[in-house]
Amino acid sequence: MNHSNINFNNKTILITGGAGFIGSNLAFYFQNNYPESHIVIFDCFRNGKLLSNGNLQSFGHYKNLIGFKGDVICGNINNKKDIATLSDFKFDYIFHQAAISDTRAYNQELVFQTNINSFYDFIQIAKKNNSTLIYASSAATYGSLPSPQKIGVESPENPYGYSKFAMDQIAYRFRNDIQVIGLRYFNVYGNKEFYKGKTSSMVIQLGHQILSNKPPKLFKGSDKIFRDFIFIDDVIQANLKACQSKSNGVFNVGTGLPRSFQDIADLLQLELGTEMETDYFLNPYEGYQMHTQADITLTKEKLGFKPIITLESGIKTYIPEIKRLHKSLEHD
Fold this sequence. Notes:
- The chain is an alpha/beta fold.
- The chain has one domain: NAD(P)-binding Rossmann-like Domain (Rossmann fold, 3-Layer(aba) Sandwich).
- The protein is about 35% helix and about 15% strand.
- It has helices spanning about 20-35, 80-85, 110-130, 160-175, 200-210, 230-245, 260-270, 295-305, 310-330; strands spanning about 10-15, 40-45, 70-75, 95, 130-140, 180-185, 185-190, 215-220, 225, 230, 250-255, 260, 280.
- It starts with 11 loop residues before the first strand and ends with a helix.
- The relative contact order is 0.13.
């Protein structure tokens, strides 16, 4: 589907974190729809380094790029020498997705160096090249504020959320120098998220539980825990619409229609043809966010964004990939 009136053919496009979930989807969108575009992926890929919580520092995986025909540069956004390799190109568009995106990463120094410090480098690259800069912000900037979450009312409650809020403030300061837009993603799910491991969406995690003949595990009261789940195709749409926007700023990217955790489990069972009882357990987290709902009024008005994929159709579309990945796990 064509989400933009811009012709990206013969444009040079940088995607940082391009071997990750959203970055790799962007790369293939451009490759498939604008075959004459020049796509450069910059990603540090995974090297086995772990955060203190046991999760991987980087989720980038070469398997997300099988079939990609553009340039791939293995580099770390914390390394000035690596970033310097990008000076060989003149970018028309920069999609800055690279980050430590784990909400339970508590090493503030590492998170802020990776997410905040490096952002200045990409601001400067955009200024030098007169690039349009679209970057990943996050719903984590809102913390556990009541729904609906609105731009301008933030309260981050972890280092990741704070780092994204800091990036939004930096972007605001440079709004008169470059075209720069931040997209606050809510709960994104879909193809190419598998290599995020424990931080992948509950859609794929519950899907794999069910396919392993295990009942879906949910917190007690999951019919009253709501999230704004958005399918990857609509996230790509938001990125493309941002490119043609005349308005700089930060915009929520969700559906505006929150759904319960129980809905996810029930829809998966419906699509997979199972009727297992849900396995409930006590929520171990204090101060758990019980409801998120993106206020997308500005996103619709300023970007022309309109979410298309319902949770039902998103899960139905995703099921073949969930099955394929589960089968590959069985053979590992």
